[in-house]
Amino acid sequence: MSARANAAQEIVDYRRSGALPGVEVVDAQNSPREWRILCPDFSVVLFRTWRGGVRVRGGVHGGDPKVLFCNMPGELFVANPHAGPGSFNVITIQPQVLEQCAAEQQPGSLRLDWAGIMLPHSPELHRRFSGFFDIFEPGAAAMQLQSQLLELSELMISDLIQGAHAPRPVSGPPLRAAARMRECLNEEGLHVDLETLAQRAGLSRFQALRAFKQRYGLPPHAYQLCLRMSHARRLLVEGLPAADVALRCGFADQSHFIRHFKRLNGITPLQYARAHMLSSRRNVSEAAARTADATVMSSDR
User: Fold this and answer.
1) What is the DSSP string of 168-191?
2) Which of 19, 224, 238, 243 is most buried per CB count within 10 Å?
């Protein structure tokens, strides 16, 4: 849904996806307002251009693009911009969702408490946040959203949660199970999600994601997208329209399919289908010409 307090300046969007229950993203552009929020969930704010003061836990803390604002469930905060309107993104995660991520990633029990209120972020963590905000939309593939959240949560927990440890490398049975996940993707991979893939391999979602990426060099959702594209190219060659191909290959709609197809193949589905059609006609013409030449040569003899 979209709320517009001032259509000329401020835009605030709230985004959810059925593939990630318990997660919400808020996007604020050119926001001049005071924000008073009591959120029941864990939340992290990535400041883009917003600068100001945030009153929480009895003190005022400066927020700017160099830091992340980390808020605990049930805490009230009041935020005021200092230098005019600014933009920021927020991710809110229900406690049980973050607890499940932590249980899969961290050895032993871990108390979920941020290491601070305003915390500096590494370039990698900033990249992961930005990447997640970019792909978080209702039409995104379930496995991609689930994988991106796990990868983001890994850095969130290790970098921002007090007492967290660096993630352990994957080895042994989890790594060997990556081959079973690849087989599952090849057999039924156009629509399978990360939860199902991990269950088939007998791993947690986090183990499945890291094991597959370590063995094959890319996460399972990227492999799944390659499978979808391979299937899509075959269907386009067979003459199916792009709208039908998008539906059969698990894309939310035709525009979503076209965007991914062009990004990975360099041309649109229509251009690909036309190129194949022209190539087929040229091959037929050349074959006919060779046959004609052979006939003429035979008659000359």
Assistant:
1) PPP-SHHHHTHHHHHHHHHHHTTT
2) 224
| Neighbour tally for 263: CB within 10 Å | 10
Q: Beta strands of the chain (E only): which ranges?
A: 2-6, 10-15, 23-31, 35-38, 42-47, 52-56, 59-63, 67-71, 76-81, 86-93, 118-120
pLDDT tens readout for residues 173-225: 666 788 889 888 888 778 888 988 999 888 889 888 888 988 888 889 889 98
- Look-up of token digits 């307002």: 33
CB 39 within 8 A of CB 92: yes
Cβ atoms within 10 Å, residue 126: 16
Q: What is the pLDDT of residue 178?
A: 87
Q: What is the pLDDT of residues 66-82, one digit of tens each?
A: 999 999 999 999 999 99
Other beta carbons less than 10 A from residue 3's beta carbon: 9
Residue 191: closest CA among 166, 165, 221, 218: 221
Token reading at 109 = 């029990």
* Domains recognised in the chain with CATH numbers: 2-168 (2.60.120.280), 170-217 (1.10.10), 230-300 (1.10.10.60)
The pTM assigned to this predicted structure is 0.78
Return d(Cα 41, Cα 116) in angstroms, integer: 16
- 167 exposure class (CB count in 10 Å sphere: 0-12, 13-18, 19+): middle
Q: Which letter, b or e, does each residue of 69-90 get, where b requires 16 or more Cβ atoms within 10 Å of its Cβ?
A: bbbbbeeebebebeeebbbbbb
Residue of 182, 233, 189 whose CA lies nearest to 211: 182
From residue 18, how far is each of 21, 38, 145, 191, 198 by CA, in Å?
6, 24, 10, 14, 19
